[in-house]
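User: Reviewer 2 asked us to show a designed sequence for the structure in our supplementary figure. I'm pasting the structure tokens here. Could you produce the per-position amino acids so we can include them in the response letter?
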């Protein structure tokens, strides 16, 4: 029986491992040979635990209620939910989106430069066309990496919001009963 680490491998992963999601390889290997059980999974980080998320949403909801009372408006749950996601996550998502867009729109430009360089003269300079060929080859890989990280971050934020909201509603309903 293989011993499993009690630490989240993402926390100790290097840059390249984070970039390619290879920090998940061990659990994927186990999952490909047998059904995953709780003992195979690494523990949930404190920032993703339901108790913390519900507590954060409850604190932000109370702040929203106080602010709304001062302004004389109705409190909005969506404002409290937006505030439980850190600014760091919003910044990371924005940066990923910008790089994804740049890699997406740079490919036709690189194709145009490449085609222009080979059509301009009768003698093809491999040294001049090599950077364009490398960019054409690397841009789809970069776009794929940016896209997969955007999806991962978005789904993590959605799961956190869902857990916080379900726990918050459950807590409110159980108080009323």
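Assistant: Here is a per-position design you can include in the supplement:
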């Amino acid at each position: 029986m293989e011993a499993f680490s009690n630490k989240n491998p993402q926390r100790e992963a290097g840059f390249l491992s984070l970039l390619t999601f290879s920090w998940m390889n061990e659990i994927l290997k186990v999952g490909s040979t047998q059904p995953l059980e709780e003992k195979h999974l690494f523990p949930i980080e404190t920032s993703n635990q339901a108790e913390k998320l519900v507590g954060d949403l409850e604190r932000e909801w109370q702040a929203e209620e106080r602010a709304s009372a001062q302004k004389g408006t109705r409190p909005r749950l969506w404002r409290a939910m937006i505030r439980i996601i850190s600014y760091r996550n919003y910044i990371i998502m924005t940066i990923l989106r910008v790089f994804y867009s740049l890699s997406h729109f740079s490919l036709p430009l690189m194709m145009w430069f490449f085609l222009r360089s080979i059509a301009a003269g009768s003698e093809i300079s491999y040294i001049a066309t090599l950077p364009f060929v490398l960019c054409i080859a690397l841009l789809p890989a970069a776009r794929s990496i940016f896209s997969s990280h955007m999806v991962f971050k978005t789904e993590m934020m959605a799961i956190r919001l869902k857990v916080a909201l379900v726990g918050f509603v459950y807590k409110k309903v159980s108080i009323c009963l």
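For the response letter, you might also mention the following. The mean pLDDT is 88. The radius of gyration is 24 Å.
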